[in-house]
Design a protein that fits this description.
This protein has two domains: 108 residues, Orthogonal Bundle (DNA polymerase, domain 1), CATH 1.10.150.130; 146 residues, Orthogonal Bundle (hpI Integrase, Chain A). By secondary structure, it is mainly alpha-helical. 59% of the residues lie in helices and 3% in strands.
């Protein structure tokens, strides 16, 4: 049995299992599996080894789909299928590059890509935030609150609205967890706190929050308090980011940090787990962050397997 026959008979089923193991839904896995089958039929009719396809051969396939008057968005779905397929083939060491990495179909609105910050750098940003050596005009209680905010951004991937909606009762100190309520745009979830976060949140809840509240008494269950009359954290988070940017030039904005956290999760957890952790209503929202993982693969390929 030759290699092309092996690809045709065995690869689609194995590829589908791979997608399921990565957390893709059954429907998405079936769709990608179907797209791969179509590609294998085309490569077979053109005497091309599917696993060893070149960039130019994949481009020829794109042109083949265009000639059939297939919509741009549908063609992009075919390319997405092949991107994951060649990613899998490369990880299996059956080839040393992914020919689809630079292929994108024009005319399709895309999620903005950010410069992804790796986990070690994110953790350095967190630990570098110094609350021991403050300037004379800096409030130590606000600095401790900001440390809590920074931790929830870097370790739990929370956004401004989620931070703003946290209440004291959402913190489960005995369990070392925090509950994020569902909203119109996101699902609720319970996330684990890091050990050092538990201690900091305990101090904040029992002491620091009370001190901030004493300066501006008001009836509120909100966990993260502002020093002024407003309950909104947007200005506080913006000031925190501006301070961080002075020391860490790689920081762009809060969305970039969240994208970095989710991209990092995708390297460790399967798609469904990350969907839950990120609070995404739809798995497609989580899938859209996979392009950042593919960009990382592209960098590794260029570094270790230069293509002439």
């Amino acid at each position: 049995m030759n290699k092309q026959t092996l690809v045709s008979s065995d690869t689609p089923h194995t590829y589908k299992n791979y997608l399921l193991s990565k957390g893709f839904s059954t429907a998405t896995s079936e769709s990608y599996h179907k797209n791969l089958l179509q590609y294998i039929v085309w490569t077979g009719s053109n005497q091309i080894e599917a696993e060893q396809s070149t960039y130019n051969e994949v481009i020829s396939y794109v042109q083949h789909l265009k000639n059939k008057a297939i919509k741009q968005r549908t063609i992009q779905l075919h390319i997405n299928s092949l991107k994951h397929y060649f990613n899998w083939v490369a990880k299996g060491q059956l080839r040393n590059n992914n020919p689809t990495l630079n292929i994108n179909i024009k005319g399709i609105k895309r999620r903005k890509l950010y410069n992804i910050i790796g986990k070690p750098t994110l953790e350095k940003i967190y630990h570098d935030y110094d609350i021991e050596h403050l300037k004379k005009d800096e409030d130590p209680n606000i600095a401790k609150r900001n440390k809590i905010i920074l931790g929830l951004i870097i370790y739990q991937g929370l956004g401004t609205l989620e931070l703003n909606r946290l209440e004291v009762g959402d913190v489960k100190l005995r369990e070392g967890k925090i509950y994020i309520k569902q909203s119109r745009r996101s699902n609720g979830r319970t996330l684990k706190l890091e050990a050092h976060q538990v201690l900091d949140v305990m101090e904040y809840t029992l002491q620091v929050r009370q001190a901030i509240l004493a300066e501006n008494p008001k009836e509120t269950k909100q966990l993260l308090l502002t020093k002024g009359s407003s309950d909104h954290l947007q200005n506080a988070i913006q000031k925190l980011l501006e301070k961080l940017k002075k020391k860490h030039k790689e920081i762009e904005n809060l969305k970039q940090i969240r994208a970095s956290v989710i991209t990092g999760w995708l390297k460790v957890y399967n798609l469904r787990e990350v969907q839950y952790m990120a609070g995404h209503r739809y798995v497609s929202s989580t899938e859209s962050y996979l392009i950042n993982d593919l960009e990382d693969l592209k960098e590794d390929i260029n570094k270790y397997h230069p293509m002439g």
